[in-house]
Amino acid sequence: MRISEAQKLIRDIYGKRDRRRGVDRTVIHLGEEVGELFRAIRDGDPSSLREEFADVFAWLLSVADLLGVDLEGAFISRYGKGCPKCGNIPCTCPEV
Ligand SMILES: [Zn+2]
Q1: Res 27 pLDDT > 90
Q2: 82 C-alpha vs ligand 1 centroid, how far in Å?
Q3: pLDDT at residue 46 tops 90
Q4: How far apart are CA 26 and CA 80, in angstroms?
Q5: What is the mean pLDDT of residues 23-27?
Q6: Which end of the chain is flanked by fewer CB atoms within 10 Å, N or C?
Q7: CB of 78 within 8 A of CB of 87?
Q8: Centre of ligand 1 from the C-alpha of residue 71, in Å
Q9: How many angstroms separate the alpha carbon of residue 75 from the centre of ligand 1?
Q10: DSSP label at 86?
Q11: Which CATH number, 1.20.120.140, 3.30.300.30, 1.10.287.1080, 3.40.50.300, labels domain 3-79?
Q12: Per-residue pLDDT at 37
């Protein structure tokens, strides 16, 4: 499945309620899911880790869709040719 197909799937499943909820409240859910992913990583539970990654991605797609951002296109234009800063694959920027 391409990212654009995933975005359409999430739009088909949740688009109507996401639009009712609006960007401001939907992005809060994204933030909460990132917190849950953080806890799953910290707790080292492999099955909840998979779920939380999927949930973060789904909420990210919802927020992108509400804002009219084509996430696949955005990702490709930002990272498709390598690191956005140095342009290399792998990145050769100084490590921070
Ligand atoms: Zn770089």
Answers
A1: yes
A2: 8
A3: no
A4: 28
A5: 98
A6: C
A7: no
A8: 21
A9: 16
A10: T
A11: 1.10.287.1080
A12: 96
